[in-house]
Design goal:
TIM Barrel, Amidohydrolase-related domain-containing protein, Metal_Hydrolase, single chain, Amidohydro-rel, alpha/beta, 38% helix
């Protein structure tokens, strides 16, 4: 079984996308043997009211009965936008969404903003995961209209150290950390936090150049297949799993990466 924990529908204002509807993604999943995809609506990153994007996703999934068992919808919530508490409740209780994705940099708040901490705690209390992205696109290829990831001549994209403060603040929540990019070096305390947390990385990000090294460093229970589709290509995240040699990962470990770890996180 294959579960993609990092996919989207919707539009990216700065790039033409393909396969960015439920119908197109459904066909692509069938072509490459992906059984289930965790999806949210890219439009929610840019809409002033993120709930409009969540409503779009809800309606799109309901438009075809084939989608019901193939897509797991995540809400995009902005905790500094008025009424987000009601939006969260609607998404979970009425729409049946199974998690939340947060975008502090795009929605312009700090990761330890009290509202963000409150939101993560509320999602935790529902028993659902909250997801953060290192980045959406490579800063070297960003549009001049996209958020700036530069400070002087230096790229200042997020790395794992930027995300860990919220994990430390709410250590009993479930976390997905997506599109693994940039520096991965942690001190002993930070590594212990990662290992004891209910936390899952996807396999889409460029930093994962040698999957076996990451399995040895973080543990085989900390990774799951993800594509970051349709912004990134559909196959690299899977190739990082399937290219592992038998002395790097046995079949049981590969199955954990394909779906086992995701099932545990998603409550299958």
């Amino acid at each position: 079984m294959l579960i993609d924990i990092n996919a989207y529908v919707g539009n990216w204002p700065f790039q033409q996308l393909k396969y960015n509807t439920c119908e197109a993604l459904y066909e692509r999943m069938n072509k490459f043997g992906v059984d289930v995809s965790v999806i949210s609506n890219l439009n929610g990153i840019f809409y002033k009211n993120t709930q409009s994007a969540n409503e779009e996703l809800y309606k799109e999934i309901r438009s075809n009965r084939r989608f019901k068992d193939r897509f797991i919808p995540y809400a995009v919530i902005n905790p500094i936008y008025a009424g987000w508490q009601d939006d969260l409740e609607t998404c979970i209780k009425t729409y049946g969404f199974k998690g939340v994705r947060l975008y502090p940099r795009y929605h312009d708040y700090e990761i330890l903003d009290p509202a963000c901490i409150e939101l993560v705690k509320r999602v935790r209390d529902y028993g659902l995961p909250v997801a953060f992205n290192y980045r959406m696109v490579d800063s070297r290829e960003r549009s001049w209209m996209d958020i700036s990831n530069m400070k002087g001549n230096a790229i200042r994209e997020w790395n794992l150290k930027n995300i860990l403060p919220i994990v430390n603040a709410v250590p009993d929540a479930k976390y997905m950390i997506l599109n693994f990019a940039n520096a991965a070096k942690l001190d002993t305390e930070e590594m212990n936090l990662v290992k004891k947390s209910d936390l899952l990385f996807d396999t889409s990000g460029r930093t994962i150049t040698n999957m076996s090294d990451f399995l040895n460093l973080y543990g085989s229970d900390k990774f799951a297949f993800g594509t970051h589709s349709p912004i990134l290509d559909y196959l690299t995240g899977l190739l990082r799993i399937e290219s592992l040699h038998s002395n790097e990962a046995d079949e049981n470990t590969k199955e954990m990466l394909r779906s086992g770890n995701a099932k545990k996180m998603l409550g299958f």
